Amino acid sequence: MMKDNNVIQVENLSKLFGDFAAVNQISFQVKAGEIFGFLGANGAGKTTAMKMLIGISSPTSGKATVAGFDVYKETESIKKNIGYMSQKFALYDDLTVKENITFFGGIYGLSKKQIEHKRRELVEELGLQEVTNSLVASLPLGWKQKLAFSVSLLHEPKIVFLDEPTGGVDPITRRQFWEMIYKAAHNGTTIFVTTHYMDEAEYCDRVSIMVDGKIEALDTPKKLKEHYKTDTMNDVFLKLARG
Amino acid sequence: MKIILYIIKKEFKQIFRNKGMLPIIFILPLLQLVILSNAATYEIKNIQFGYVDADNSSTSRELIEQFEASTYFNVSEKFPSEKEASQAMQEGTIDAYLNIPTHFERDLQKDKTKGIGVFIDAIDGSAAGVINVYITQIIQNYNKNIVADLIQISDTVQKPNSIESIPLFWYNQTLNYKTFMVPGILVLLVTMITLFLSGMNIVREKEIGTLEQINVTPIRKSHFIIGKLFPFWIIGMGLLTIGLILAKVIFNTPMLGNLGLLYAYTSVYILVILGMGLFISNFTDTQQQAMFIAWFFIVIFILMSGLFTPIESMPKWAQILTEFNPIKYFVEIIRMVMLKGSGFVDIFPLAIKTLAYAIVMNGLAVWSYKKTT
Amino acid sequence: MKRFVGFVRKEFYHIFRDKRSLFILFGMPIAQILLFGFAITNEINNVDIAILDQANDVASKEVINKIAASKHFSIVDIIQQESSIESIFKKGKVKAVLQFENNFGNNLIKEKQANVQVLTDATDPNMASTISNYISSILKKYQQELNENISIDYQIIPQSRMVYNAELKSVYMFVPGVMTVILMLVSAMMTSISITREKEQGTMEILLVSPLKPFQVIIGKVFPYIFLSVINAVVIVLLSIFVFNVPVNGSLFLLGIESVLFIITSLALGILISTISATQQTAMMISLMGLMLPTILLSGFIFPISSMPLPLQVISNIIPAKWFIIIVKGIMLKGIGIGFVLKETLILLLMTLLFIGVSVKKYKIRLE
């Protein structure tokens, strides 16, 4: 099924809202196990593109497969193989940490035993022992984000999509967050992450930069910097964004 | 199946954790049932009654005494002239007044017949009609008395023909309004709670962003919907149960029919409402929009259900519209089963329509629920 | 002040940008008033009845014809035995059965006295007693026709005049009521939801730390809704005048002022609800579950308050809608001036101040 071990395969994918092309004929591949950075300014079309890949928005035209499944017809199969963390915190504020984990584990069809096991592992890893029975609403934002990321990994998906996962958190938490991302990647999970923090782009294996619905550049951070003759990804981005 | 259980558990936890909502869901409706059932009555009592007596004769005074003796009227005031009486009506202090003209007694004896002015505040047309009937009855009875008092019935007078109508009030001999209203108001409350809660539920998750998280899971939409709606189905059935107990204990409402039948019907009925709620949820972006739409339909359903005003008197087109009103069916059936002891065969035509409604509504709801945009 | 104006303008944009809500806010009241104005009536017409004619003679036929000719009844079934009565009642097919005794005509001729039994399904008591009244008056009329040649004795004839509503139109009763219910619920719901929404989304805190004073924030949020509700009120009044021919006998200006007052009362109630609820959901449920039925049932909209048990008459005093309905009926139908509705106006004014006062206090407590 899977071509050259590409877990995401996108060809000329577009999404139109009326006349406006939010995503304009983008093409790229993501290899298994890599950390793929999906960069762009606000409104460049990152989130729209991502929503097509995770099966909650139908593309207008083009082709794409995720984990070998078609984004038009096999969205439900895609969903079995991916995890997703949205930019808006999307766990239940009025449930406790434990209840959130149980609930999401449950709807992914994990067994009671698996859920129990995962929960212990996760709580320990995140150091949430003290607050397992507290409402999520009472946690600081950084903890919430880390919890949301862990929940998206509960069912051990092949690919996990992270939409601006570190928005609004302090630098230390961001650092810890990226450690978690590395760990997940190390375990073989493919990471697809959008961000507008350019320093984070340096942590990715490869990055694509989207401007006005199009992918303007795609390569490793190192090569991009060489190509645009700059020292930081930030400058690369500025050059591209200014056209 | 297991997945559905996880959702149900989560919904119940969220409902019971919201301390602000619990009294609104469970206490407010029952309180309203107990209080408001007393309010809904068309029985006309305590009519504020005034009069102008320009004649001031024994006949006119006797006539007024008839009104004073009646339990329907509170004879409040004698007005010096019609102007004052009319003003009192304008202020709303009296509902009706009698205007007895000068030479009333003299003319009556001379001409054997004499008109008398009756003025009724008719803004509430139906109440005015009833008041008019009461007044006419009192005057007619009094007419018979004058006949008996003042004249000897001469043998030459032929005995008049008389047709007596004998009213028999079935199922509710004492014409107790509460018997009529309690089941109906219970229906309203069950409907309102289930519609509002289900209508708000999914759109709420849309608004706070958790729906997206659910939509990226491989959950089947039918599982998700069943899991979401089942808790409200339980709440609806629970409310019905407590409401029926209150009806029995506080109002002693008769329950002639089979309660099992009532429950079986209700279980289908609530599905109609939940389907409707979900449908609304799917077509709105914010809880505010969902609530306005739910409100719009509920007000129409309530006022066109035959609960407070009769459906038969509506124009034809409006009667056809009421066919789409689920509350109408439930109100009719709960009254039939509880008050008349109607059985399955009697309610079958209404029940089958409700079932069809439930299937269509839930079909639409599931169809319109999209995991993809 | 400039800041405040800017804030109000932002709120207006906010509301007018949401085309769907706007459509709902304006479309629904219009749809409702049209629907209810035409459809709802508490008159009793076209009641389905059945006949059980055990006499089957000239006299009974004649009575049946009289009943069939009445607009109040339509005869949908002729039944043969008494035993079928129960089953047709249980099916809900008819509301009443008229049973003529065996020798109806003979009795009338020989004994000058004959009986008709009026069996009514009294699960609806109002329907049942009205039916029996209508039938008995039809019979009385027939009786008078029979007795035409017989001299009548002393008769006082009541000459009834239906004041303010000569044709006993239901619309006169329902239009002011529907208008009140709509204004009350829409206004209270809108404000309570829009304020709790800001609380829920955390934007309220941002507004409260801005240089705007808390009461300016609240007024700013409520102001556009006053505007919307006034438009609604105007549309409703126009519809009632031109579509339903409800007269405005009093001053239109006074009606306008009173409507604005009532709208402000409702909005103030909405603010109060928003101070006691943490989520939009709670606010909505309080304004819908808490206000809808009491406003419909305890305001005199459908059921006369004077006939209610005393405790309920007392409770009805705290329903703002009750006072506004009195005012609207007074101005529109009775044509009275401010002097006659001074009490009601003052009560609404006091309620408004009370709602605002309590809200301000609650907000202060939270801020401390």
Descriptive report:
The complex is a heterotrimer of chains A (about 240), B (about 375) and C (about 375). Chain A has about 240 residues and is α/β, with parallel strands linked by helices. In chain A, about 35% of the residues lie in helices and about 25% in strands. Chain A has nine helices and ten strands. Chain A has helices at about 45-55, 75-80, 95-105, 110-125, 140-150, 170-185, 200, 220-225, 235-240, and strands at about 5-15, 20-30, 35-40, 60-65, 70, 80-85, 160-165, 190-195, 205-210, 215-220. In chain A, strands 6-7-8-3-9-10 form a six-stranded mixed β-sheet, sandwiched between helices. In chain A, about 45% of the residues are buried. The model of chain A has no long low-confidence stretch (mean pLDDT about 90). Mean pLDDT of chain B is about 85; it is low at about 150-155. Chain B is an alpha/beta fold. Chain B has a four-stranded mixed β-sheet with strand order 2-1-3-4, sandwiched between helices. By secondary structure, chain C is α/β, with parallel strands linked by helices. Chain C has 15 helices and five strands. Chain C has helices at about 1-15, 20-40, 60-70, 85-90, 105-110, 125-145, 170-200, 205-210, 215-240, 250-275, 280-290, 290-295, 310-315, 320-335, 340-365, and strands spanning about 45-55, 75-80, 95-100, 115-120, 155-165. In chain C, helix 3 (about 60-70) links the parallel strand 1 (about 45-55) and strand 2. In chain C, helix 7 (about 170-200) packs antiparallel against helix 9, helix 7 runs parallel beside helix 10 and helix 10 (about 250-275) runs antiparallel to helix 14. Chain C is elongated and about 95 Å long. The relative contact order of chain C is 0.10. Classes of the chains: A alpha/beta (about 240), B alpha/beta (about 375), C alpha/beta (about 375). At the B-C interface, helix 2, helix 4, strand 4, helix 6 and strand 5 of B face helix 2, helix 4, strand 4, helix 6 and strand 5 of C. Strand 5 of chain B pairs parallel with strand 4 (about 115-120) of chain C.
